[in-house]
Amino acid sequence: MMSEGTQEAAGSTELACVLCGQVDDKPSIFGKRYEMYGLCFHAYCVGFANGLCQHGIDNQNRGLFHIEHLIDLMRVAAQKLCFVCGKMGASVTCAEPGCTRSFHFPCAREGQCVTQHFGDHRSFCWEHLPHQPVETAPMQDTTCIICLEPVGDSRSYVTMVCPACQHAWFHRACIQKMAKSAGLRCFQCPLCRDRERFVQEMLNLGIYIPVRKPKWERNRAYAALGVRHRRCDASDCRHPHGREQREGEGPWQLLLCSSCAAQGTHRLCSNLSPSTTSWDTNVRQSVLERHR
């Protein structure tokens, strides 16, 4: 049961989240971890908590609320039992009218609950979660298009299908991982490439899609593809200062392969005339082989 003030997890010097009781600092699961006025909380635990009065967002897209409201919420949650883990302090309640099931945000996946990361940030328990409207079911031996492991013989909390093509089957965990990597700009069905229907349905089913560029652009994983080749690859480079040297014209002008642009040569090193405007390493190789 959570207290009103700060709380430390057993055996840890770090403050635990006042709503879920965990000290884990895993933004991909809990959202960012914040400490304010001596209280610690996860962004998602606060974002999905019932009854917390928020007043817009700041310049870092964080919800704004009065600390007094958070303390009031803690008091209410302290009286609610999480139907998943059986512990007190459940601050998230199913949005279905009349349903009283409550749970901690980190318990959602284990309890097969859905948390919608858009609009009013509604949450649903396993009984009232939204289902896919399609009637199709996976054929025997159907595998996840992402991990290639079997998906079972029916749609379920862990097994989903693209609403557009209805042929791409995948596990919830697999499509969630893909969404976090691709971001909203590049997230689409991995088979038919549909975006509009696919994105909306995945959001409705509780898949979190971050509004940012894909990770492969952020960490510049493919930055090298945009770098022009800058060295002579002739078997006998004749430049007195090495393969990396080049000039804009003349014998030391560097020509790149017209087929791949991944190899280059100085004009002189491949005996190219001043009038030659292109060079293909594959053509040169075939000529050499014919003269052997």
Provide a short characterization of the protein structure.
The protein has 292 residues and is of the alpha+beta class. 20% of the residues lie in helices and 12% in strands. The protein has three domains: 27-92, 2-Layer Sandwich (Herpes Virus-1); 130-227, Herpes Virus-1 (2-Layer Sandwich); 230-292, Herpes Virus-1, CATH 3.30.40.
Description:
This protein is α+β, with helices and mostly antiparallel strands and 292 residues long. It is 20% helix and 12% strand. The chain has three domains: 27-92, 2-Layer Sandwich (Herpes Virus-1), CATH 3.30.40.10; 130-227, Herpes Virus-1 (2-Layer Sandwich); 230-292, 2-Layer Sandwich (Herpes Virus-1). A two-stranded antiparallel sheet has the order 1-2. Strands 3-4 form a two-stranded antiparallel sheet. Mean pLDDT is 83; it is low at 1-11, 55-62 and 286-291.
